[in-house]
Amino acid sequence: MNPPPSFDPSPRLLLSPDARPRLVQIHRDNPIELRRDLIAGLIASHAAASPKFLYDRLGSRLFEAITELPEYYPTRTEAEIFDAHAGTMAQAIGAVDTLIDLGAGNCAKALRLIPSLRPSRYVAVDISVDFLDDAIADVQRKHPMLDVAGVGLDFSSELQLPPDLVQGRPVFFYPGSSIGNFTPAAARDFLAVVQRQAATGGLLVGVDLVKPIELLEPAYDDALGVTAAFNLNLLRHLNRLIGSDFNLRDWRHVAFFNQADSRIEMHLETRRTLVVRWPEGERRFEAGERLHTENSYKYSVEGFTDLLRASGFAHTRCWVDAKGWFAVFWAQA
Hints:
The chain is an alpha/beta fold and 333 residues long. Helix content is 35%, strand content 25%. The chain folds into two domains: 21-29 and 71-157 and 164-211 and 299-332, 3-Layer(aba) Sandwich (Rossmann fold); 44-65 and 226-297, no CATH class. It is globular.
């Protein structure tokens, strides 16, 4: 068995059966700024918290469980597309020197593609460093000759990778429809940043498509209540971060499709009037008042193609499942 991952601020190429994954910590929260931003969201007229706070260690594991639910179609539908078209995708993409997995999570999606794309290096990027630690160790065990690295980074705020890790022809991989967490304007800006960094490579991105509400809403409000637990766990995370006293029993999970904005919205709604306190502050919530935790925008193939072109990608290609539920785009930088 390979030894556990090690922290290495100066990554080096490792191409031997004894290769060890490296974990480079870039994202380090400034506690003062983090606290200020979180409290600003809580006391806003419409309370909100960034969806990135859904993904502490427990949140990441709960999301992994969500992907196994029968209602949650995106993961399995995207996997069907990769299984059916991996060879064609590899031909369209061409040589891959560095595969950069944005929001890597447990790295399972990249593991499906590595045999087809055959990169020289795999770089997993995620804000949840503790979760990433185990995931890259698993990738290294399964691909001992592959140079594997993990980067702890909040790429939604700034996508800036260590230059030593991005060598040759890079391909950015952003699966799972996470691009939908950005507003369309923010998505355009983010994609433009990826386009500039992709050099002679490009971006392989998963996109959830618009579909009937009776399919969309259960995917974010499952019968077993796993998504509810995932959303409620954000309150536990806030309690740790700012010393607040959220009681999870006072809140319930709410998810619905906002047709006007073409997005799923997730909220936490109070069951009664209450006051949430933290050191030197508090917020009164009326019964039925909501804390907005996440958006997930849904696109048409034409709409997302236009977004890629507006971001600077000149050449795109798309693969869609047989039901037309999900799409994977290849965008040449």
